[in-house]
Specification:
homodimer; 4-stranded antiparallel beta sheet
Amino acid sequence: MHPMPIIECIPNVSEGRRPEIVEAIAAAIRGVPGARLLDHSSDPSHNRSVFTFAGDAAAVKAAVLAIYEQAMKAIDLRHHAGEHPRLGAVDVVPFVPIEGVTMDACVALARDVGREVAERFAVPVYLYEEASANPARKNLEDIRRGEFEGLAAKMATAGWAPDFGPATPHPAAGASVIGARMPLIAYNINLNTDRVDVAKKIAAAIRQSSGGFRFVKAAGFELKDRGIVQVSMNLTNYEKTPIFRVFETVKREAERYGVSILESEIVGLVPAAALNATAEYYLQIGGFKSDQVLENKLRDA
Amino acid sequence: MHPMPIIECIPNVSEGRRPEIVEAIAAAIRGVPGARLLDHSSDPSHNRSVFTFAGDAAAVKAAVLAIYEQAMKAIDLRHHAGEHPRLGAVDVVPFVPIEGVTMDACVALARDVGREVAERFAVPVYLYEEASANPARKNLEDIRRGEFEGLAAKMATAGWAPDFGPATPHPAAGASVIGARMPLIAYNINLNTDRVDVAKKIAAAIRQSSGGFRFVKAAGFELKDRGIVQVSMNLTNYEKTPIFRVFETVKREAERYGVSILESEIVGLVPAAALNATAEYYLQIGGFKSDQVLENKLRDA
């Protein structure tokens, strides 16, 4: 048999202070056959919760609609405050291709879910990242700028009609941003120095915003308790900007300051393909196929 | 839910010329619930077939017994010839821990299966590799030396009583070697030179038998059609002799001859952990856990 297609979905919901609401949403996800809730966490100061679940397209769609059912009756953004920017009660819904599924399929799913959310809940929906056909509306930060409080004015300006749903915000639930993107890798490199200027310069050298790699976001920080500094990164497309190329570039840039790499660190999850590509690179492996990984072969048999 | 324990089993059977016998054995494996036949291949000049299947301990044990049922009625080593050395109709049966199972559990399984094979089929059984408590009887080549034709004399000499079963060979089926071992990685490194002496010297430097790494078998070959040479290896314990250390040593040894690595090649299957350890090494990743691999997390949830 072939492996089930796996799509990961990581909705961000504007509620992080009332545990009973968060638990009701988690229970709604768990209640969908084929949807597996992997993780959820709430930040009271952000007043926001992040849910991570996975399944095939049908299961993931059903789970998203179940989240809206709960969120729409419990959350009113007119009475919501928190440190994290937000546009809607269900603020952001990304679909991420993991296994046996293409990015195109996730884009199609984002459009399908966006249309249904707009129809069923009268919430305007903006498509983002890979699901957006509009270059000015790919970036989440651009879409969310102005937040819920500025949404009615923003929607009335040219170029900001939603992709689906009404032309004005839902009174209580605002708007939602739904889309498809690659898995994100949170990756830190610690340097054998206490000079934070070195970490900041290296971060500037490798991140897209200041001329570096297309799919790198980076910042330099001090780790004061350890007396060292860190280049902290998000790698937003490990296929096009691979982890080993970022590591080697940081290493070379550090050398010009007489600094070496102490260690690196993957925070949270990493796709197996990103690690396999790293092994292939350093071992100069030619013609490797993912079904040569024993565990993959065993699972697909 | 937790993942099912997965044990791989790769029996070598002394029949590679009669497809109907090979197919009957394959069908017997497929007929065991929970046993997944991943691959089988026959070599007529060796007159030998290799089956690869996987499952939990109970399924793998049932499949091995089903193989004996077929092999015992179809194979008579008194009328068997082939290039490959062999001691028995079912010649070698290794159990390999893959996922959610320890080496100790595979050793226990080897003993359990060995005892049952001896009782049910009156075949003497030698335990080998990790399942052997006797240092002189760990190595398959040592146990198999003398082959079927020399088996009766060998069994009569001191130190060669079998671990289970009768003190003399089974008249038609000889004896079996059953044990537990780590997954084996077949790994080749191609060098940018046509000097086969360089490949042979590097092979000698890295293999255990001539002073190299404990878990490396290696030989140097010419690839005449490509005008290059190859260091061809079996890595028999990737945890204790990791692939990256072997690669880096070959690279350094090649440098003394002014030779560089063209590419490397993994033949067949490789455990994910061997690739992950390689990525961790080169990226200097500290404190990585296998449940940080997205696919593992998804599967275990």
